[in-house]
Write a structure and sequence with these properties.
The protein has 4 helices and 14 strands. The protein has 206 residues and is α+β, with helices and mostly antiparallel strands. It has 2 domains: 79 residues, no CATH class; 106 residues, no CATH class.
């Protein structure tokens, strides 16, 4: 039976056979029976590569952080995660540079992980586990951002909207003109993407 450790663009954890292309964590979320008992434990939500320096882990080992899986990086960013500073060092540095450009207008002083995580925590959650969203004109949103349409998550990508499923993107629609939409990706991350950070997407997106 699949474990409940796959992350949706809403930030929810679901059980599904598909693993996805990326890995990450947000602390220890499971009990000794490998059951999810909390939405998050720490403020540092990261997204990592699946393989790094030959490391191997037992999934949901008691007392260790909960291994989470994402369809792609765009999904992880929508959920509220950011690139890992260890296994994705170059992406992390690119993310910091775009973040600095978006939030301070200069890349002379890059933000620390704690500074980014503090703002992300405000932007991704209302209370302890409810997803924070906001409204925006779709024409102002860059590629790589998720919106909600008819209650479902859609990725904005190359003049289209792609419907997210655990196994990939299964439907395409032309991106509409001026229209107010609900944005899933945290505002600070949307600004970072708009400033030049391009998230990796599943091959079905292209």
């Amino acid at each position: 039976m699949p474990l409940q450790n796959r992350v949706t663009p809403f930030g929810d954890l679901i059980a599904t056979p598909e693993r996805g292309l990326m890995f990450g964590n947000r602390g220890l979320l499971h009990n000794q029976h490998r059951e999810i008992v909390r939405h998050s434990q720490v403020r540092r939500w990261i997204v990592c590569v699946l393989e790094f320096r030959g490391r191997r882990r037992e999934i949901m080992h008691p007392g260790y952080y909960t291994e989470l899986f994402f369809l792609d990086e765009a999904t992880a960013l929508a959920a509220g995660h950011r690139p890992c500073a260890e296994c994705r060092r170059q992406d992390y540095q690119r993310f910091r540079g775009a973040w600095a450009s978006a939030h301070s207008g200069s890349t002379e002083k890059l933000p620390s992980a704690d500074e980014m995580d503090a703002l992300l925590q405000q932007d991704r959650l209302e209370g302890r586990s409810r997803k924070r969203t906001y409204q925006a004109d779709i024409t102002t949103l860059p590629d790589g951002v998720f919106i909600v349409r008819d209650g479902e998550p859609w990725l904005l990508w190359q003049s289209e909207m792609l419907r997210w499923t655990p196994g990939g993107y299964d439907r395409r629609q032309p991106r509409p003109g001026a229209e107010i939409v609900t944005v899933l990706t945290p505002r600070s991350t949307v600004n970072t993407i708009a400033a030049g950070y391009t998230p990796a997407v599943h091959p079905l997106a292209t």
